[in-house]
């Protein structure tokens, strides 16, 4: 591993080079509606394109598999975000849903939902339905911060 990834409470991960105190990025999984783990990450601009997102995604999936392997791991992103799409596809997630990005001020925005396994239609609807969609974490999972898209 090129970066040290430390797991905190509720699947919050931080990435830094070994021996460095500079945070390269954060990521993890938060529970959504009690039916899935939402995979997220955010990197410093200078750290993008160097494989750190893939390392955070791998560590987050391992964490989710240890905590509750029955829940699917999903990633929600906008269709134009081709770099994030490549990261989640390399991690083994496949497209589970494509549709309008509800609540986005851009009416042409398209939201994609990727998953690590087949997700039932009713679960997909819970994840993408309504105004909130994936934004609100499941309170019982004590999410450690906001859910952000990869």
From TrEMBL:
Highest taxon of source: Bacteria
Residue ranges occupied by any N-acetyltransferase domain in the UniProt entry: 1-117
InterPro entries: Acyl_CoA_acyltransferase, GNAT_dom
Coiled coil residues, start to end: none
Gene source species: Luteimicrobium album
Official protein name in the record: N-acetyltransferase domain-containing protein
PROSITE patterns: GNAT
Cited Pfam families: Acetyltransf_3
């Amino acid at each position: 591993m090129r970066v040290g990834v430390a797991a905190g409470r509720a699947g919050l991960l931080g990435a830094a080079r070994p021996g460095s105190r500079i945070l390269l990025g954060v990521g993890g999984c938060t529970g959504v509606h009690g039916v899935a783990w939402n995979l997220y990450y955010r990197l410093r601009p200078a750290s993008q394109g160097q494989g750190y997102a893939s390392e955070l995604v791998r560590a987050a999936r391992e964490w989710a598999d240890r905590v509750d392997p029955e829940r699917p791991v999903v990633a929600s992103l906008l269709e134009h975000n081709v770099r994030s799409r490549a990261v989640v596809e390399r991690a083994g997630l496949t497209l589970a849903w494509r549709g309008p990005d509800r609540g986005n001020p851009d009416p042409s925005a398209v939201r994609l939902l990727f998953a690590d396994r087949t997700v039932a239609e009713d679960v997909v609807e819970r994840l993408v339905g309504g105004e909130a969609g994936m934004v609100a974490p499941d309170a019982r999972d004590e999410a450690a911060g906001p859910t952000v898209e990869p």
